[in-house]
Structures are given as C-alpha cells and as structure tokens.
Amino acid sequence: MSAGVNTETLVRVEEIQGRGRGLVSTQPLRGGQIVLRDSPILLYSALPLTKQQHSTFLYCDKCFKTIQSASVSCPTCSHRRFCSPTCLSAALVSSHTTWVCQSLSRLRDCQDFLQHHSVERQTQAQFLIAAYNLAFVSPSDFQILLSLQGRAEDEDPAIVQSLHSVISSLCPPPPIEGFSTSLELIAALIAKDKFNAFGLMEPLNLNEENGGQRSVRAYGIYPKASLFNHDCLPNACRFDYVDTNNTGNTDIVVRMIHDVPQGREICLSYFPVNSNYSTRRKRLLEDYGFTCDCDRCKVEATWSDDECDGDDNEVMEEDVDEPMEAESDGEEIDNDNSTDFPHAYFFLRYMCNRNNCWGTLAPFPPSDAKPSNLLECNACGAIKNDEVC
C-alpha cells in the first residue's frame, strides 16, 4: 500500500474558520491516494466487563485480531487472552501491566460496580485505566493525549464524580509525575476520549438480520487522524485491516475517495453516510458539540420530514465524501441537474451495493501515477470495477 510514499507531506494542519484545526491538501491529490497512515497511542477493549466472556468473537487483547485458534491467557488474571506468546509478552510491558491486570480484575469482581454502572460507564472506566497506564509506560504519549481536542468543563460533573470514585477506590493508580487522579484530570481524559477515539470494528456479517451492522471490538486514540474534520459527504475515508498479519495491523489508513485540488480540506464522516438530516444533526450536536453546515445539510435542511426519513436503514457505516463541488477523477461533479439531491452521484458511485453492507468505496492507490479502476469497500472489503473511469 504505497510503500515508500511520505504521506506527511501531502496534508498540513491549518486553522479553518468556524471549524478549528483541520487537514488541508498541500498538492493536488488523486482518488485512492493514501494521505495518512496513523498508529494508535492507546488501545482498549470496547467490550463491557460483563460481556467480555460472551462475545460472538474472541479478540487478542494486544493486537485485537480475531483469535481463530488456541489463545494464550494472562498468567495472572486468566481473563485477558492473546493470539500468541509474542502478543502476551508485549502486552505485559505495555498495555497489560501488573497494575492494569489488577485494576481490571477488581472492576470485574465488583458486583456493585457492574450492577449500578451502565455499559458506557464500564467502557469509560476501562479507558481511564488504559490512559493512566499510558502515563506510566509512555509519558510523552500521555502528553499527546492531553493535547488533543476536548474540554473538561463540557463533561457531566455527576459522571466524572462517579468514575473518580470508582477509580480512586477500586484501582488507584501509582503517582503520576505532575498529575493526580483529580476530578479535573478525569474530566479532561473523558473529553479527549469522546472527541478523538476511533472504533476498530468487528468483522462484517452480511447475513445478519440487523442489516449487516457491526459492533466495535476496540477503541483507539490516533493523534493525527483525530485532526480530520467532519463532512456529511467527505472526500476521504478510512480503512483498517485489523485481522491481517501485517505489522501495524491496528493502524488507520486514510485514502482519497476522489481527486481534490491543492488547498482543499480533507474530511471524513464521523458516522454512517446514510443517516438522515435530523439524525446527523442530533448526533453531531450531542456527541461532538457542533452543527454541520456542509452542502448536503444545507440542501436536506429544506426537505420535509417525510423526505428526510428512510435513509437510516438503507446505507451502512463508515466514511464518505465532501461538498459536491469537489472534482471526481479530474471531472467536476455536475450540480445543475441535482439541486434537490446533490449527493445522489456519490451514493451511486462510492457506496457499496452488496446486500446489508453499504460501506464506502475508494480506489486503490494509484500505480505509477495511473489511477486505479478498482474500488475497495471499507466495510466488507468487496472490490468494484469502476466503470466510470
């Protein structure tokens, strides 16, 4: 996948009016071009403590690959499983240290915590343990985590107090130089997780009755990828290849969906492109604290409720494209004939048409500057021959 290409030079960080920091192209970019490959500074399981033994899939607690054969258990707690002795050895000195092992065991064994705290709160407690552990094993990465977007004052004081009580009573971390397990720090960490975590998805089962929806196997903090702003029709999408045998299987790879000129902001969608206007507006405001005014939202804001309904069950998860004046393989997308539905072209060309998938399609990276006619789905992995090219 574009080995030897320095993606660091393809985008730069800029302050964008009304949107904060964002990533902007430093040169014309082609569809399929990889603009970012980012590794996580922190990974933690998305499975609630009460359900980790009952998941459909079993994942390695280091690399989060699906475990297909015999697994290796943590020699101390026996709850955490790893795909190989290599992953176990690496975890014991990084993500599953003695303190992490003891803390997760205490949370799991505390019936009061499990019975009186929601699944979301259990997951947040696991994140806090992973974050405090990061401060011990990699202080520089902990500082990067604290530098990311997210304001402590925006978090619910009751939730912060509840999690502070759990952490300080059940699993107080060793002293962190320059920090304490204060309410302020916990609030700041929760905010960083809320605004910057990416989900690594479970395998997609196209035959599921729930329409092919996937659950999250793990969450990761990706410092560079967190700089991408949202657009309901973005021009790039992210791929992950967790279940491959490649080194860096938990990396996020961001590829362009279509051509864009120099100076264009590169955007992802923070959630499924099929979501209707009211759903998108509500989720962005509640989860991210802003109202989107992209071209798609401006058009759909004028639609009736009946016109807006019905999208949610028609398209699946992940990322999409950007405002539709953007170029597609060197050609302008024609808005004149699509005033009422400017994103119809995007759905037709860049949405996977496999039953119950509805992932996003992006070309494979160009070869010798020649664009690829093959598009890959970032949800099911299907390959489409792009007849438009």
UniProtKB/TrEMBL annotation:
Cross-referenced Pfam families: SET
Parts forming coiled coils: none
Gene3D superfamilies: 1.10.220.160, 6.10.140.2220, SET domain (2.170.270.10)
InterPro entries documented for this protein: ASHR2-like (IPR044238), SET_dom (IPR001214), SET_dom_sf (IPR046341)
Stretches assigned to the SET domain: 6-271
Domain of life, per lineage: Eukaryota
SUPFAM superfamilies linked: SET domain
Protein name in the entry: SET domain-containing protein
Native source species: Salix dunnii
